[in-house]
Amino acid sequence: MDIRAYDPEVDFDGIARIWKEIGWIESGSDDQEKALKVFAEQYDGLVAIIDDSHGVLSLDLDESSYEWRFIDVYGNVRDAGTDSCN
Q: Taking the CB of the first residue and of the last residue of the chain, which one, N or C, has fewer CB atoms within 10 A?
């Protein structure tokens, strides 16, 4: 897995597709997509890439552990795991 800085010119369409597929914004909603674009341009985020597939890295944090999933732009979980933390 490679992780690099978010580039709005390269990554926005993939991010919008993922947000639509998981229901965070509605398909066909120009207002929500514009709001996402404004949010994403302000955010200093990272992009994860597995086998040349773009996606998001989802983290669920608890007091003593965390769970992560790499979800590609098609909504498939490509990799996942859990571990303990301090």
A: C
Reported residue count of the chain is 86
Give the pLDDT confidence of 16-65 residue by residue, as tens digits. Answer: 888 887 788 888 888 999 999 988 888 777 877 777 777 777 888 899 99
Closest CA to 11 of 38, 40, 32: 40
Say how far apart CA 11 and CA 34 lie, in whole Å: 15
Exposed/middle/buried for residue 61 (C-beta within 10 Å: 0-12, 13-18, 19+): exposed
Strands (E), the chain: 2-5, 46-50, 53-61, 65-72, 77-84
User: Using CA atoms, how far apart are residues 16 and 73, in angstroms rounded to an integer?
Assistant: 9
